[in-house]
Every structure is written in C-alpha cells, then in structure tokens.
Design brief:
4-stranded parallel sheet; two-stranded antiparallel ribbon; 224 residues; 8 helices; single chain; alpha/beta
C-alpha cells in the first residue's frame, strides 16, 4: 500500500498508520495481490482525495461507500471516474440533479470530479480499495476504521463543514459528526435503485452553496 498523504492530513492521521488494524489491512491487500487479484484504484491514487483536498481547505464532504470496481474507473475520489471513462449510473444521476439544481449546468463529457476536490470538496469513500469486479470486497478489512477517524477528526478540529450524506450507509455516519458545529444534507442515494425515491429534487448542490454564501465562504463551481 502506497501511502501518499498530503502533509496537513499527515499531522492528524500519522498515528493511524502504526495501528494494528492498518497493518492487518496492508497484509490483506498484499495477499489479494498475491492471489492475482487486481486492486482498484492503483496504489498512487488510494489517497487521492486527501492529496487534492488538504485538511485546511475542506469545506464540504461527500461520502461514498467503496470505489468503482470496473477497469480504469476508480481514482481515489468518491463517485468520480477517470477522464475518458463512461460515467456510471450513480454519477449520471448526480449530473442530472445538477442540471435541475444549478442554473446553466451542462452535463460534462467525462466524470472526473477533481475540480470539485480542488475547491474543498472532500470526496471520501468509506473503503479506499476494492478488488476488480467484486463490489464491496474490501469492506470490513479496516478501511472503515480509518475513514471513520477522518470524519471524527474533521468534526472535532473544524467548524461549519457541510456533510452530504446520500443513502442509508452514508447517513449512518451522522453519529460521528457534531451537529452543533456542522451542517448535514441528507437524501436517498443517487443510484438507479433509489434516485427516484427522493434524490432527484433534493437540491444538495444549491443548498451547499447557500450555506457557504451565508458563512462568507466561496461557493463551489459544480461545473466540470
């Protein structure tokens, strides 16, 4: 496991890499590769969300579950795919909601959300790796301990963050967030199974910008 953590995050998370669960996780990933499993994303992209969104610049957190498990999709940002890769259904639905939520938004040709990350949107998956073709295959191996710690540290050390929690899995993380200090925006997940149950029309992007504006912070340009 290649640890490429931006320095401001390392101040808060360095100790995690010495803990037993992280050592076990590293062994698990090495075993998967020995068995011939292809692991996504590639090593240098596992911590991409932290690299593109330094700790001090986090304004918004969008929590996903685990990386896409298809070839060339995952690159370390929740819901995002690499340039030139077909947009998965959940991401297509996110863009559809943006068209109705943000005036002038045009559906982009690709699904790389790096520009959001560079504006302070931490695109965090609960699990940071997955085996090719096996959705959820790296859950309960230790990643959730690490990413729960990330959420706790953000909640404790920062103020006035906006957490966007789509679906029951993400919403279960609300207990880690100090609701007296931070805002939470919740709706069903954008997947095709639940998008029509309340994701469409939930307007999370304009709501986020309204909150940022009230706080005197720069709004997010959601256009890719």
């Amino acid at each position: 496991m290649s640890v490429k953590l931006e320095s401001s995050w390392l101040i808060h998370l360095n100790d995690e890499f010495e803990k037993d669960y992280m050592k076990s996780l590293k062994e698990f990933l090495m075993e998967e590769k020995k068995k011939g499993e292809i692991v996504y994303p590639k090593g240098e992209d596992i911590f991409k969300a932290f690299e593109l969104t330094p700790f001090g610049e986090v304004k918004v957190v969008i929590l996903g579950q685990d990386p896409y498990h298809g070839a060339n999709q995952a690159h370390g940002l929740s819901f995002s795919v690499q340039k030139g890769v077909k947009q998965p259904p959940s991401l297509q639905n996110i863009f559809k909601e943006l068209v109705s939520d943000i005036e002038g938004f045009k559906i982009p040709n690709d699904g790389d959300l790096s520009s959001w990350a560079k504006q302070g949107v931490l695109l965090l998956n609960a699990s940071l790796t997955v085996s090719a073709g096996k959705a959820g295959s790296h859950q309960n191996q230790g990643w959730e301990i690490f990413t729960d710690e990330v959420i706790k540290i953000l909640s404790e050390k920062k103020e006035n963050l906006i957490f966007i929690l789509w679906g029951k899995f993400a919403q279960a993380k609300e207990e880690l967030i100090d609701l007296n200090k931070h805002c939470v925006i919740k709706s069903p997940h954008p997947s095709p199974f639940s998008a029509y149950s309340g994701f469409f029309g939930s307007k999370p992007f304009s709501k986020t910008n309204e909150i940022l504006k009230k706080l005197g912070k720069k709004e997010i340009d959601w256009q890719i």
